[in-house]
């Protein structure tokens, strides 16, 4: 397997699996931040030390397998083109920060793209594990097992009192960030989400856009994650997150029913218009595409639009990002060239469905 | 409202410009805003750590101005990575694991603010490196449980816990003597 496998499809293999609450929750993710005990953290470490870490991971883990995560591919960031980097970021296989780091930054990615280990990002090691739908506990257990496997060979920076030591004080303790990607069109339409955010924040959770910190909620996709990493067990953190996610699901479902009851024809109109825009546009900007895709996905969930796969939202959201479009075109594109290609790819994909 | 520059896209950004007391309202879309230089994209936007570095500077209200640390005779500095406490406050990140010990005396207020009042780890203990730590933590919680059971006069249950404690103590003993070989 080569890097090309990761570049080929917008949707990762694990996303196709059936999963709980998949009409609202797109994916669950566990991220664990870990560091080597005897080395300075990447932000101030010598290039030589970081290079040692990179080589260690390449030698020890390239093409190895752990449980169902098979055949890890080792990718050095400095060997990637700008377009390849953006594709990996758009697929959430690496973070924007890792893509920007030159030198000894690298990633270890399992064949099914469910596990990725970022090397020399803000911390020496960042383990990420994804599951489709709402499956936080399952994801946590797998991530902790995977963590044990890495720990067999790595001496972690760990302190009895402070827990896992991380570069940023916001990650210390468990080093864990659990997050859930949710499609909340009805809560966004009725502006309820804005009213719920302060309450969610008070519970020590954060709501962000699809591409993490500072990004907006493109396509009504929101990422909910824990802020607190110290003083609570991993299980406890996940329970808190899960209970809020369950409430959001319930509110979203109620809001969908209410809109459907009170203004069914308007909603249907909006959904079909969006479908029309996607089906006939010759030029479309990413924001408009995201908005229409969100509406079409809602239409699919409500049974208004039939014969279109649910995955179309996840898939086209990634496929129509700048990196992927340019990867598809095999060259760099200006913004207006991208808008044209985006429209044509979406048309093609929808025709393929019919 | 449409963008006042291109008159095509909807205006998504609303600015109020104040130049020499003269106020102008600007309604613009993000494409034009970028082109006309109204917005620039910083590396990571305004991230949490910008907020944090603000939080760190609460002690005496004195913000680490350039050179201010030179006046101090002895600045706290990590012996391992060389990061000074002033530097730590400025960038909001630790340089290495040892920094946690070096700056230990100053960290509790920071952790309390960031982690809702928590300062101590309760989660996972690494399997290999943690060694007997798991068992010791378990022992501690059994002992607390035993106290409670005795207080509540639930002696039957207490006897079970007491046996578990004995077992655990024996296991810890065995491992410790085994490790020293």
List the helices and strands and how they pair.
The complex is a heterodimer of chains A (354) and B (181).
Chain A: H1 3-8, E1 25-34, H2 47-61, E2 73-76, H3 82-90, H4 96-100, E3 106-109, E4 115-119, E5 125-132, H5 136-151, E6 158-159, E7 163-164, E8 176-183, H6 185-189, H7 192-202, E9 205-208, E10 221-226, H8 234-280, H9 286-301, H10 312-319, H11 322-329, H12 335-353
Antiparallel strand pairs in A: 1-5, 1-8, 2-3, 3-4, 4-5, 6-7, 8-10, 9-10
Chain B: E1 13-19, E2 22-28, H1 30-35, H2 48-56, H3 68-71, H4 85-91, H5 99-102, H6 104-114, H7 133-151, H8 155-179
Antiparallel strand pairs in B: 1-2
What is this entry, summarized?
The complex is a heterodimer of chains A (354) and B (181). Chain A is an alpha+beta fold and 354 residues long.
Structure, described:
The complex is a heterodimer of chains A (354) and B (181). In chain A, α3 (82-90) crosses α11, α8 (234-280) crosses α9 (286-301) and α11 crosses α12 (335-353). Chain A has an 8-stranded antiparallel β-sheet, with helices on one face. Chain A has a two-stranded antiparallel ribbon with strand order 6-7. Chain A has 12 helices and 10 strands. The longest helix of chain A has 47 residues, at 234-280. With 354 residues, chain A is of the alpha+beta class. In chain A, 47% of the residues lie in helices and 15% in strands. Chain B is mainly alpha-helical and 181 residues long. Chain B is 47% helix and 8% strand. In chain B, β1 and β2 (22-28) form a beta hairpin. In chain B, α7 runs antiparallel to α8 (155-179). The radius of gyration of chain B is 29 Å and the shape is elongated. Residues 41-45 and 59-65 of chain B have low confidence and may be disordered. At the A-B interface, α4, α5, β6, β7 and α8 of A face α2 and α6 of B.
């Amino acid at each position: 397997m080569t890097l090309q496998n990761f570049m080929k499809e917008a949707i990762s293999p694990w996303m196709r699996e059936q999963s709980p609450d998949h009409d609202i929750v797109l994916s669950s993710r566990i991220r664990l931040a870990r560091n080597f005990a005897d080395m300075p953290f990447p932000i101030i470490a010598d290039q030589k030390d970081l290079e040692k870490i990179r080589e260690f991971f390449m030698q020890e883990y390239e093409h190895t397998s752990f449980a169902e995560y098979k055949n890890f591919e080792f990718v050095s960031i400095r060997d990637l083109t700008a377009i390849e980097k953006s594709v990996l970021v758009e697929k959430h296989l690496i973070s924007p920060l890792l893509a920007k780091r030159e030198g000894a930054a690298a990633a270890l990615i399992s064949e099914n793209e469910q596990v990725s280990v970022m090397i020399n990002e803000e911390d020496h090691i960042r383990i990420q594990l994804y599951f489709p739908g709402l499956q936080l506990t399952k994801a946590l257990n797998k991530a902790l097992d995977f963590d044990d496997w890495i720990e067999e060979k790595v001496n972690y920076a760990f302190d009895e009192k402070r827990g896992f030591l991380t570069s940023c004080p916001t990650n210390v303790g468990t080093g864990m960030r659990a997050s859930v990607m949710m499609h909340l069109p009805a809560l966004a339409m009725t502006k309820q989400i804005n009213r719920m955010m302060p309450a969610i924040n008070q519970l020590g959770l954060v709501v962000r856009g699809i591409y993490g910190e500072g990004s907006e909620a493109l396509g009504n996709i929101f990422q909910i994650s824990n802020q607190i990493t110290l003083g609570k067990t991993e299980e406890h953190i996940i329970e808190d997150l899960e209970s809020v996610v369950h409430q959001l699901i319930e509110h979203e479902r109620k809001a969908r029913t209410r809109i459907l009851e009170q203004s069914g024809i308007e909603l249907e109109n909006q959904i079909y218009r969006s479908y029309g825009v996607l089906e006939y546009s010759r030029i479309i900007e990413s924001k408009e595409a995201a908005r229409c895709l969100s509406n079409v996905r809602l239409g699919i969930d409500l049974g208004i639009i039939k014969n279109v796969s649910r995955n179309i939202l996840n898939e086209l959201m990634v496929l129509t990002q700048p990196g992927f479009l340019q990867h598809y075109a095999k060259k760099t594109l200006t913004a207006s060239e991208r808008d044209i290609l985006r429209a044509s790819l979406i048309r093609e994909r929808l025709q393929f469905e019919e | 409202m449409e963008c006042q520059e291109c008159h095509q896209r909807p205006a998504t950004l609303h600015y109020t410009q104040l130049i020499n007391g003269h106020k102008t309202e600007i309604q613009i879309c993000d494409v034009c805003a970028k082109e006309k230089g109204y917005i620039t994209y910083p590396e990571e936007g305004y991230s949490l750590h910008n907020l944090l570095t603000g939080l760190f500077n609460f002690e005496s209200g004195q913000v680490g101005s350039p050179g201010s640390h030179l006046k101090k005779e002895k600045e706290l500095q990590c012996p391992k990575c060389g990061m000074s406490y002033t530097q730590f406050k400025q960038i909001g990140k630790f340089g290495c694991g040892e920094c946690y010990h070096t700056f230990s005396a100053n960290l509790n207020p920071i952790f309390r603010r960031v982690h809702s009042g928590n300062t101590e780890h309760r989660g996972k203990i690494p399997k290999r490196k943690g060694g007997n730590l798991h068992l010791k933590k378990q022992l501690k919680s059994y002992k607390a449980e035993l106290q409670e059971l005795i207080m509540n006069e639930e002696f039957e249950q207490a006897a079970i816990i007491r046996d578990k404690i004995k077992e655990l103590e024996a296991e810890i003993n065995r491992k410790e003597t085994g490790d020293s070989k």
